[in-house]
Write a structure and sequence with these properties.
CATH superfamily of the largest domain: Nucleotide cyclase, GGDEF domain
Distance between the termini: 27 Å
Number of helices: 8
Largest sheet: 5 strands, antiparallel
Oligomer: single chain
Order of helices and strands: HHHHHEHHEEHEE
CATH architecture of the largest domain: 2-Layer Sandwich
CATH class of the largest domain: Alpha Beta
CATH topology of the largest domain: Alpha-Beta Plaits
Radius of gyration: 20 Å
Shape: elongated
Helix content: 40-55%
Number of domains: 2
Length: 183
Amino acid sequence: MAEDLERWLIDLGLGKYAEAFAANSVDWDVLADLSEKDLESLGLLLGDRKRLLRAIASLDGEAPPPRRTTDGAERRQITVMFVDLVDSTPLSERFDPEDMRELLQTFHGLCASAVEAQGGHVARYMGDGILVYFGYPQAHEDDAARAVHAGLGILENLRAANERPGAHDARLYASASTPVSSW
């Protein structure tokens, strides 16, 4: 698969499907012929199929122009956020491993949904924390503000989870750090 098609998918926020496209020899010459059923068989989720079909329709039968860079590198501003479950060590001593795993999965899910709602990218789950990027792979003018809104969304999700009767024998709290940096 051409690198520019892979880059185009990444720019659309659909880079995770590049491998499936390459494995099925999907390139620019057959892109316009893909149906929703074809995309479903490639493993694209409904929303991603709709986004891709809309993007393909906007191409007018031509590949987008290649990016112009002098050395192949691109400088962009990103916001990095790390969200951590507060007091996870005492919790891990209190719960058996299966219950602790369930608690962490709940925590990760609540955090990821708030992050994704603001256009963030969960880069890595790291024990009781998650590493999040805003501005990569998709850049927005307001990525720092999106990170703040995601942090507030995480707190709201955790508050709602803590108020649910019988959800857990533990209260979920998060701490976050969002240094702004350049790559």
